[in-house]
Amino acid sequence: MCKENLNSLFLFILNDIIRLGDTMPKRKRRLKVKWKNVFKLLSVILVIIFAFKGISYLYFNNKVFNDIKGSKLTIKTNKKQIKLSKKNVEYINSSNVKVKIKSKKLTYNLKNEYINNITNLKIHLYKDKIKEDGFNNSKGYFISDDKIKTGNVTVKLPFFLSHKKVVDVYGVKGNDYIKEYTKKVKNKQITFKYNSDYDRYVITYVKLKEIRVDSEQINMVKNRTRKILINIIPAKATNNKIKYIDVDKKYISIKNNIIKSKKDGKTSFIIKVDNKKIKMFVNITSKKFDVTKVNGIYYVDGLMLVNKSYPIREDYNPGELNEETKTAFAKLQNDAYAEGINVWIVSGFRSYSKQKELYDDYVSKEGQEKADTYSARPGYSEHQTGYAFDVNEATDKFNNTKEAKWLEKNAHKYGFILRFPKNKEDSTGYKYESWHLRYVGKDKAILIHNSGLSLEEYYGINSKYKD
Ligand SMILES: [Zn+2]
To answer: Residue 326: pLDDT band by 50, 70, 90 thresholds?
Structure first.
């Protein structure tokens, strides 16, 4: 609806009031004015308010001005300079500029006779909630212009953006929002390079709601590192530069989300984002994990521990994988299958004597030195615990399969760790085995997996034969 139409509507109703007033008896006339016509007047005022709510911006020659109503703006073009006074704006509204409002979309058509060197300039400006994942219903300021092909565009920001320190500029093509810039706001405006490949641009500020970390209580081992996984909610938050505050450098150092413990004890620090009140406290406990021995079996952090430094007693023989491990694997197997991934256990529990048989066979074929890189000596195999097993095919051929990749990405979610990861030979004592999984429970599996460490590195223990 344009102002012209509103004016005539207004006049029509005013006329109506007068006309009614003339034909009614005096008492009724007053009533009519008080009730019906006051109501009509109010609705007209409401319509005017609504109609003009969106008309606050004028886009002209690569510049966007807001609040053209009653403002005095100077627009510079190559050829001439036009001053937009209140009168100019009225003139634009009444004659030479057609104002169309389709929902919240605003179009100004500036005609030849008003500005000679600009024709068919189309502007679509509106502020609206961005209906796109990850924006969390932020308001956006949409800009498109058929006329502009390239070049710098200066946008004077509307109030909801102009007081921000930085704003994001997204290029929109179809349903894709591509973040092009994070721009500093200067004098309530920003300038960015316009690329006509995009359907339109959205300028927005996405408010940070929450910072999440994978664990608020982190257990560490002195001199070990651990990656801390930080999630910014919403992911598209404009302010997303992480800062670490109150870091006690005696105890820890942090760089690129990697914490290194320097001293045993308890400490904490704060994760924060620039200029925002939202904080996340993280507590760190650094201690050496004690390896304990109970009934001839070693434990660390409640886990049965078997490696080249920590053997398991010869007669420990549960006979099969334990129930917890089997249940967790069944769940993993089901979920994997649903994604087109087939995994099965090819070798589970192995007794001391079975391991002896295998190992002796390898030694006789390839010699002890070679056999030690891939096969455990009897009494040193994790398979004897009933918590470890091999899947599909226990050879290097399995390494590059989609099944191995799926396990590397997902096994921890079910409580399993890849016990002998890539490039961890020095700590585990074994070469990379993509097929050997160990059940440690979901919580520990996630922590160990996210640390990027082998089990030995994570707990600060060794894996080396004594001889
Ligand atoms: Zn194995």
So the answer is: very high
Distance, CA 388 to ligand 1 centroid (Å)?
A: 7
pLDDT digits (tens, 9 = 90+) for 19-47: 443 444 445 555 555 777 888 888 877 76
Cα of 425 from ligand 1 centre, angstroms: 15
- Calculate how far, in angstroms, residue 325's C-alpha sits from the geometric centre of ligand 1: 14
Q: Where are the alpha helices (DSSP H) in 101-212?
A: 159-162
Cα(436) to ligand 1 centroid in Å equals 4
Query: How close is the Cα of 384 to the center of ligand 1, in Å?
Result: 10
Reported as a single tens digit per residue, the pLDDT across 76-128 is: 333 333 444 454 455 444 433 433 322 233 333 343 333 333 323 333 445 56
Determine the straight-line distance between the first and last CA of the chain, rounded to whole angstroms: 90
Among 86-95, 228-237, 262-271, 326-335, top mean pLDDT goes to 326-335
Whether the predicted pLDDT of 439 surpasses 70: yes
Is residue 442 predicted with pLDDT exceeding 50? Answer: yes
Q: Report the predicted TM-score, pTM, of the whole model to 2 decimal places.
A: 0.51
Look at the alpha carbons of 2, 75, 191, 277 in this order and tell me if their dihedral is positive or negative: negative
Place of tokens 């585990």: 428
Q: Mean pLDDT check: name the lowest of 115-124, 222-231, 449-458.
A: 115-124
Query: Could you tell me the distance, in angstroms and rounded to a whole number, from the CA of residue 218 to the centre of ligand 1?
Result: 29
Q: How far is the CA of 217 from the centre of ligand 1 (A)?
A: 32
Asked if the bond preceding 378 is cis, omega within 30° of 0, the reply is: no
Q: Stretch 204-210: mean pLDDT, rounded? A: 88
Q: What separation in angstroms does the CA of 359 have from each of 59, 208, 306, 428, 433?
A: 79, 57, 16, 18, 17
Show the 3-state SS of 236-282.
Answer: CCCCCCEEEECCCCCCEEEECCEEEECCCEEEEEEEEECCCCCEEEE
Length of the chain in residues, anyone? 467
| Cβ atoms of residues 40 and 12 within 8 Å | no
Q: Extract long-range pairs of 156-160: CB within 8 Å, 24+ residues apart.
A: 156/63, 156/64, 156/65, 156/66, 156/188, 156/189, 157/66, 157/185, 157/188, 157/189, 157/190, 157/203, 158/56, 158/57, 158/66, 158/127, 159/66, 160/127, 160/205
Distance 57 CA to ligand 1 centre (A): 68
Q: Decide if 463 contacts 427 (C-beta within 8 A).
A: yes
Helix ranges (DSSP H) in 54-187: 86-91, 159-162
Measured CA to CA in angstroms, residue 281 lies from 255, 268, 331, 338 at distances of: 17, 7, 34, 38
